[in-house]
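Data availability (excerpt). The following record was deposited with the supplementary files.
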Amino acid sequence: MEKKIIGLFLFSLLLLNDLSAQMAPDQQKPIFSPVIKSLILPGMGEFSLGQEKRGRFFLISEIALLTSVTLAVVRTQYEYSSMRSYAAEHAAVDGSDESNQFWVNVSNYSSSDAFNNEHLRWREVESLYPNENDQLWNWDSENSRIEFRNLRVNHDRLKKTASFITGAIVMNHLISAIDALYLSRISMLENVSYHPGIDFISGTYQHSLTIRF
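Predicted structure:
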């Protein structure tokens, strides 16, 4: 649903940009409008409109966000590898199941047998791990299990952080594109005039607002 909303929003921006270009048919339409430039790289549209201060703000934000998400992804992969290695060494985990729920179960139960026994009491037979399944574990100590749980929680936190920063990058592109569209519209205003008046015969107020493009 979120991807569809973002896609629809991008399409709306492109449509608005085309409409604004059609309002000045005597001007040659550029290959890449400021809105498109900002969608590609935040700040480019502002730079093309002579708004260097705004352009630097969006560009620096993009660089900072890209650096942060890169570090978060690299750290997430490192933590995941460390987590799996630790589980293999201290709990004899030799499975190929990489689902998050599997690692949650491994961190919460001392062994796969303990997990199965508890879920049997809950009559959740479909959740049991078969004995011949290679996704079994048995921690060598309670301290090792707790240490693994800390590793898993840290990995999940880093993964969520990477997702959050990715969303911030998308928002930076969209906000920069909206800002470029706003600046484009403002630059097309040649004259704005407002004339208040009073009709003494009818005793009413009159207002006139003129905007010339």
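Summary of structural features: The chain is about 65% helix and 10% strand.
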